[in-house]
Amino acid sequence: MIEAEGLTKIYGDQVVAIEEVTFRVERGQIVGFLGPNGAGKTTTMRILTGYMPPTRGRARIAGYDTVLQSLEARRHIGYLPETVPLYPEMRVRAYLNFMAEIRGVPNRKAAVERAMALTGLEGRADDLIGKLSKGYRQRVGLAQAILHNPDVLILDEPTIGLDPRQVREVRDLIQELGKTHTILLSTHILAEVQQVCDRVLIIHRGRIRADMTLGEALRSRRPDRIFLRVEGGDRQVPEALGGLPGVRHVEQLEPGVYEIQVADHVKEDPSPAIAEAVLRHGWRLMELRPMGLTLEDLFLQVTAQD
Amino acid sequence: MRNLWAIARRELGAYFVSPIAYLVGAAFLAVMGFFFYTDVIFTVLGRSEPTMRYIFGVMTTILLFVAPVLTMRLLAEEQRLGTLELLLTAPVRDWEVVLGKYLAALVLYLGLLAATGLYPILLFWMGGNPDLGPILSGYLGMFLFGAALLAIGLFSSSLSQNQVVAAVVGIGLVILMAVASLPADGITNLTLQKVLNHLDLRNHLMNFRRGLIDTTDVVYYLSVIASFLFLTVQILSSRRWR
Questions:
Q1: Which of A11, A12, A51 lies nearest to residue B89, judging by beta carbons?
Q2: Which residues contact B2 (CB under 8 A, 6 or more apart)?
Q3: Three-class SS of residue B84?
Q4: pLDDT tens digit string along A174-188?
Q5: N- to C-terminal Cα separation, chain A
Q6: Cα–Cα dist A153/A142, whole Å
Q7: Which of A39, A114, B17, B222 makes a 20 to 30 Å CA pair with A176?
Q8: Whether the predicted pLDDT of B156 surpasses 60
């Protein structure tokens, strides 16, 4: 649905915003697009939506080239930019009706009502946009993006500025939309990605540094620390496990509860070896799990490079 | 085409919820009314003919300031609010955006012009029996002149995201183009003299006021409009390439 091939954008003559950005998003996927501020997220999204062309490379939306078949590609996209583009002097319904009109939506009235219902705007249809709270403006922006039931949704920080309840509602909505739409959403909130996304793309200094499914992101790497709970063994545990390959240090947190630090140089997860050792000694293994293996770790690790 | 109408209609709607249209309209009509009144007094006193020539002359000057104010918001505000990103990522062509906005300004201007139609009606009603020909051709001239100013104003609005900057640049540009022929008399190079005389926005109004509709003048105004609208589309498209 979304194909980016070697996208490079150079502003002016020198400022390289993104370089050789390549990725694909398949139909029905929700992809989280992460990166520090200024990493090139918005630039990438603007190229995908046809707002500006790449300096090199090309992008396709639903099979249409964003430069050569720009209008066709734009018909298949719903876009919520970073600054929600609203006309403050218009009323919600009139604004959505206008957006539906310039997008060529066939059954305008029904489409507007449907979008308002999906984003919980029914009660605000006749309010002036300029008088709405930030949360409601965000919803109007989202309603505008889904009006024409586009194949692809590109959302630049859709939950920014919302209160926890609204964040929840918008996330639920995104998840709901994700069943039938392809979604690329940028965010700074890692928990959001963990909750709603199937895949994660991390961009740093204009380059894609990680592109994996959420499962891979959380499973593929070996943990730094392992949490262990054992019955029996008592004082022998640190000694017995300390000699295992890949184990740097065993610390007793409280009787029967240990934190095992994994040596930096090993590639393999020492968990199976630990389990085996515990059983071999005839102790009872109550709990064994990797600690601190979060998206945040991955994000910090990936964006710490150079 | 449908997009063009949608944009024009939205823009007209926006004119009437902001105070600018009312304010500019009221100021324009108040000043015009004042000059018309003085002209009528002179006519009654027998010092002036019952024509619209004087009024058209005043209107020419006032429009230099009014037109860029009417257009200043059109693209500048769109850039400031970020809604330009919306229009440029919707399946709408850049020229449809520009033309739609231009059309809205033109309709508003046509409304203002129509309101001044009261003056010739009053002239007839008072029994001044003015010559109808020069009035009609004069109005056609004023329409084309104003339409050209609006195109220049729209162009200025594309240059900045600040409405005030857009208005100041617009007023500067239209004044320059309206006085282009002033230095022409002092120039010995005949070609340059001719060019300056031809470029002058006000020179092409002379014939209209006399009751003459010359295709040269009509073509001149239409080409000014087309050129500036074209430039505006280019500015808009170039935003994509930066």
A1: A51
A2: A101, A104
A3: helix
A4: 888 888 889 999 988
A5: 32
A6: 10
A7: A39
A8: yes
**Contact flag B91-A102 (C-beta cutoff 8 Å):** yes
Task: List pLDDT tens digits, range A223-241.
Answer: 778 888 988 877 788 888 8
Residue with tokens 């963990």: A194
pTM attached to this predicted model: 0.84
Lowest mean pLDDT, pick from A84-93, A95-104, A286-295, B193-202:
A286-295
By C-alpha distance, the chain A residue nearest B82 is A85
Instruction: Give the three-state DSSP class for A253.
Output: strand
Compare CB distances from B82 to A12, A49, A83 and report the shortest one's residue: A83
Tell me the two tokens of residue A21.
């950005």
Cβ–Cβ under 8 Å, residues B72 and B170: yes
Query: Among A77, A96, A102, A103, which would you mutate to test the B interface (most chain B Cβ atoms within 10 Å of its Cβ)?
Result: A102
Q: To 10 degrees, what angle do helices B19-44 and B53-81 make?
A: 170
CA distances from B11 to A5, A71, A102, A259 (A): 38, 22, 13, 66
- A and B: number of Cβ contacts within 8 A: 74
A58-72: per-residue pLDDT in tens?
A: 999 999 999 999 899
Long-range contacts of B23-28 (CB under 8 A, 24+ apart): B24/B66, B24/B69, B24/B70, B25/B111, B25/B112, B25/B115, B27/B66, B28/B62, B28/B66, B28/B112
**What is the SS3 assignment for B160?**
coil
**Residue bearing tokens 């430039």:** B231
Cβ–Cβ gap A83/B242 under 8 Å: no
CA–CA separation, B57 vs B210, rounded Å? 12
Nearest Cβ partner for B6 among A72, A98, A144: A98
The angle formed by the CA atoms of residues B98, B59 and B11, to the nearest 5 degrees, is 25
d(CA A187, CA A101): 30
With CA atoms as reference, report the closest residue to A181 among A194, A169, A167, A196: A196
Interface probe, candidates B22, B88, B89, B92, chain A, greatest A C-beta count within 10 A: B89
Q: Tell me which amino acid residue B54 is.
A: Y
Burial B201-228 (b: 16+ CB within 10 A, else e): bbbbbebbbeeeeeeebbebbeebbeeb
Nearest to B18 among A50, A89, A99 (CB): A89
Per CB-CB distance under 8 Å, the chain A contacts of B82 are: 81, 83-85
3-class SS of residue A187: coil
Average pLDDT, chain A: 87
C-alpha A248/C-alpha A242 separation (Å) is: 7
Task: Pull the structure tokens for residue A150.
Answer: 């586009």
pLDDT at A306: 58
Does the model's ipTM exceed the 0.95 cut?
no
8 Å CB contact of B240 and A52: yes
DSSP A222: P
CA–CA gap between residue A115 and residue A180 (Å, rounded): 15
CA dist., res. A234 & res. A101, Å (int)? 73
Nearest CA in chain A to B100: A102
**Is B241–A52 a contact, with Cβ atoms under 8 angstroms apart?**
yes
Nearest CA in chain A to B79: A85
